[in-house]
Amino acid sequence: xxxxxxxxxxxxxxxxxxxxxxxxxxxxxxxxxxxxxxxxxxxxxxxxxxxxxxxxxxxxxxxxxxxxxxxxxxxxxxxxxxxxxxxxxxxxxxxxxxxxxxxxxxxxxxxxxxxxxxxxxxxxxxxxxxxxxxxxxxxxxxxxxxxxxxxxxxxxxxxxxxxxxxxxxxxxxxxxxxxxxxxxxxxxxxxxxxxxxxxxxxxxxxxxxxxxxxxxxxxxxxxxxxxxxxxxxxxxxxxxxxxxxxxxxxxxxxxxxxxxxxxxxxxxxxxxxxxxxxxxxxxxxxxxxxxxxxxxxxxxxxxxxxxxxxxxxxxxxxxxxxxxxxxxxxxxxxxxxxxxxxxxxxxxxxxxxxxxxxxxxx
Length: 362
Fold this sequence. Notes:
Layout: H1 26-38, E1 42-46, H2 48-52, H3 56-66, E2 69-72, E3 88-91, H4 96-103, E4 108-112, E5 133-138, H5 141-146, E6 151-154, H6 157-167, H7 192-202, E7 207-212, H8 217-223, E8 232-234, H9 243-253, E9 258-264, H10 265-268, H11 274-281, E10 285-291, H12 296-304, H13 320-326, E11 332-335, H14 338-350, E12 355-360
Parallel strand pairs: 1-2, 1-4, 2-3, 4-5, 5-6, 7-8, 7-9, 9-10, 10-12, 11-12
């Protein structure tokens, strides 16, 4: 690539119109709508593709029309449905047996915008609960092709949800049981549950959450309930190193909003130099490092394979406040109690540039 490439004049490219919205096969959507209407206990399992398609409002309306339970698909990299909604039931685990246990009550499953059968480790048993009819809808033909069960429709999830809504009728089936509220916590003990609850209690209205804390993710899903459309981003796989640079990218793409990056101490070490980028850009990011002094996710995964010890997972002795200072950031705090954490969070939200909060959890 010549070094002066950007300086060379080139021919003007005329604007073109390219239609990309595929509304799906009409006959297949009719069959899908009929299957949904005759179901007794339907479930919608929503993946990140629904967020990319802008299907949030259509899916809320469809779920309410059908009194359907709503779940988030495994490894969804976006938030796809208001998590305090009366029909929201939780998150599908990326393991076969727990997934089937969670969906066992349903006789109809509609997976939209992402794969239902995405497993983090090998498992046994059926791919969908016994007797459940399953449909998959999305714009990726590869995902539809390797779905192990049921029918599939290639198309835009918003367009298909809007069509189902227009042709469907309000259901008289009873509403599903509400999702359980998170348990009350002891504020004297700062563990990761209380840390996430403190974030939930202080989160500003304009916040966008970026997350890479695999050990804490199930706890985050219980205590930090996200209800803002396009308000959450995480990695779409089990790989590490996404969260901190992604927080900088989201800050560049969402000016005027506060980015709250919830990062595990192990994950942070894959992209710690992102702190320097945040400092250079003056990016409005609150980096919350959940420090349990270990690569807990790798230890947990090692136990899955019967490993007694996972070498190289002890992170005790790291000083993230010192790392922040070394990368130019003036605002950093180490906290070990709930009151100090909430104060540090509020102070960071009131600032214009980046801040780091190291949360020492027990």
